[in-house]
Amino acid sequence: MVTPIKSVVIGTAGHIDHGKTALVRALTGIDCDRLSEEKRRGITIDLGFASLDAMAHDNAPLRIGFVDVPGHKLFIHNMLAGAGCVDAVLLVVSAEEGIKPQTEEHLAICSLLGVRRGVVAVTKVDVVSSERLEETLSQIRLFLRGSFLDQCRAAIVPASARTGDGLKVLHREIIRLADETQRSDPGRLLRLPLDRAFVMKGFGTVVTGTLLSGELRTGQSLTLEPGGRNVRVRGMQIHGRPEEHATAGCRIALNLSGMEVSEISRGQTLVEQEALCAVTTIDVEASLLPGCSGLKHRSRVHLHAFTSDTLAAVSLYDYQAVQVGERRLMRLKLSKPVVLVPGDRFVLRQASPAITIGGGRVLDVHPLPKLRKAKCLAWLKSLQDSSPEQQLFLRVARRATSGLDARALMAETGLTQEALQPLVEPLLSSRCLLQIPGAILMAREHFDSAAENVIGRLMAEPSNAGLKRSEMRSQLNLGARVFDFVVDHLAQKRRLIVKGDFIYITQASPQSSDPDVKSLTAIENTFRSAGLSTPPVTDVAAHLNLPAVEMRRLMTLLLRDKVIVRMGNHDVYIHRDSLDALRSQLGELRGQIIDVGGFKKLTGLSRKYAIPLLEYLDREKVTRNAGDRRFVL
Question: Under a CB-based contact definition with an 8 Å cutoff, are residues 443 and 477 in contact?
Fold first, then answer.
């Protein structure tokens, strides 16, 4: 059995002229400065790439890719294009100069992008005294205090690329870092953000990038976004060697057929066909870096995500300026489309002066159009800190009676069908979601609402005239598959009758004799009009002049057809319409906590009714009991 190769990408970070490129060259033997201007000026301008093959502590093969970034403040946009796809950071600090402005900005950028592991290399130790080295080391420890490098206990290694001092220790720490670094994207759809595109003689168009997620094979057909152009992978190289298969974390070069190099640019992304598309409107949570003056509604900022860079207009839901220390929800309207999925990290930079001001996390890449701001904000708050299973439920539920099919759910979450299945199954088992033929998912509350709309429309027809299927579906604005599923369900429950192309309301239960119809209707109307505060069954029987035995028989019929629902072992009976209305009312509080007092206030009920109702809602998985409180699911 062949041991799989683990691939990890490490990005350099640090101030200009602190020795990042020289250090990578000393570790790998590869000079990352490929441009003539970089050679002439002696500085890194664009991204550079190198590789190192090694063995982990358990002798498993390691494939380490290095992304060398420019340190000059004028080329931060290039640094960001490289930093967006790394798993860990090699922070480089010169022993001569210590912490400088780009050291601070680069570390802040790595933190905003979700990098959580790294190594610190203190370079040029051969040109400073031991006293100066100790002074720099003390400054670095103070600077890192509280940062992610401090939290992961990153090694601080003095080294010299010129003399080789400390390189063996640094090499060992980098291998340990790569060995311990875990990628957090299993189950995500294939994405390859492009950082270079060029023509290679004899091959044609070649692109390079870091495979963020998924797997890639030679011969595979992909789509380039934005643009929606289809291409085919003619050939692939990893670390300069031809390969047939690549996994997430690999630095790869692809030889593409189907596009000219002039049609490809940094910031575009290769994805599986009909899987993901570039978007221009996203909902995010974001925060600002210390020292920023704030971010106002309708501000324009630069958004950097992976290799993409675009202007974005900020729309704040409460219009109040964002202050340092706040985690705020906002909408960003992008000037050009970018491929993003929930969970992606991004950086925000101010246009003038050009400084990094903050960043955050993508929450939603397919906001519903024309949705009121208050409702959208409430939905985002529910989504913000909820579990993956709850997030999936929220995404399906907001689509109401349209539901969400498997392909749309994949595009909205960025997850494969295999990764979604374990999240969907518990929701289907608990009946929170229903699966409609055609792989359409719908929240139970919206299915019940659609069913009642069908019944209500039929009841509005005089003398049970019935309606044609196509006419009714058009009037109710339901998709064909959803409508057919609802009608079939109601027909099985004997609440309606389908004859050819026409649908009729059921006038009485087939197992009920004609004399029962008037009494059943009277009982049902009594419970329906009472809402949640229903009278005792004995009072209803007395009011309708029905004997106790007869009342029990009729109630059994109504309970069997689920027209009336009993609250567990309590002698409380409630009409299903009132329960459906309560479900919808609680749907507005999804993700929130409510106690008995709050529930009584919400419904206007006494404890006599509130407790049985809450126990019923627990059983129906509408709420979850948490002691004296309930979590609304």
Answer: no
Task: State the pLDDT at residue 311.
Answer: 95
CB atoms within 10 A of CB 125: 24
Task: Please tell me whether residues 134 and 14 are part of one structural domain.
Answer: yes
**Closest among 209, 305, 218, 207 to 250, alpha carbons compared:** 209
Q: Are 232 and 290 in contact (CB under 8 A)?
A: no
Number of domains in the chain: 5
Q: Indicate if 88 and 131 belong to the same structural domain.
A: yes
In a domain, 322, yes or no: yes
- Asked if 444 and 434 touch (Cβ cutoff 8 Å), the reply is yes
Considering the domain boundaries, does residue 64 fall inside one?
yes
Which tens digit of pLDDT belongs to each residue from 203-230?
A: 788 998 999 999 999 999 999 999 889 9
- Bond before 536 cis per omega within 30 degrees: no
pTM over 0.70: yes
Domain hosting residue 342, numbered range: 279-364
Q: Does any domain span residue 125? A: yes
* Nearest-angstrom CA–CA distance, 133 and 152: 23
* Percent of the chain topping pLDDT 90: 37
pLDDT on residue 464: 64
C-alpha 267/C-alpha 346 separation (Å) is 13
Coil, strand or helix at 180:
helix
Tell me, yes or no, whether 374 lies in a domain: no
Q: Are 277 and 414 in contact (CB under 8 A)?
A: no
Phi and psi dihedrals of 136, rounded to 5?
Answer: -65, -40
Q: What is the pLDDT of residue 72?
A: 59
- DSSP readout, 320-373? PPB-TT--EEEEEEEEEEE---TT-EEEEEETTTTEEEEEEEEEESSPPTT--H
Residue whose structure tokens are 């299927």: 469
Quick one: 23 and 134 in the same domain? yes
Q: How far apart are CA 280 and CA 71, in angstroms?
A: 30
Q: How far apart are CA 137 and CA 159, in angstroms?
A: 12
| Distance separating alpha carbons of residues 146 and 150, to the nearest angstrom | 6
Are 67 and 86 contacting, i.e. CB atoms less than 8 angstroms apart?
yes
- DSSP structure string for 446-468: HHHHHHHHHHHHHHTSGGG--EE
What is the C-alpha separation between 56 and 58, in angstroms, rounded?
A: 5
Judge contact between 337 and 226, C-beta under 8 A.
Answer: yes
How many residues can be counted in the chain? 633
Same domain, 35 and 140: yes
- Residue 569: both structure tokens together: 């072992």
Q: SS3 for 138?
A: helix
- What's the CATH code of the domain at 259? 2.40.30.10
Q: Are residues 465 and 569 in the same domain?
A: no
Low-confidence stretches of the chain (pLDDT beneath 50): 1, 35, 38-39, 43, 508-513
Q: What is the pLDDT of residue 507?
A: 61
How large is the greatest C-alpha to C-alpha distance in the chain, in angstroms? Answer: 106
pLDDT per residue over 18-70, tens digit each? 888 889 888 888 766 554 554 455 545 556 778 888 887 877 888 888 887 76
Look at residue 304 in the predicted model and tell me its pLDDT: 93
**Nearest 5°: CA angle at 333, between 402 and 71?**
130
Q: So what's the pLDDT on residue 235?
A: 92
How far from the centroid of its chain's Cα atoms is residue 127's Cα? 49
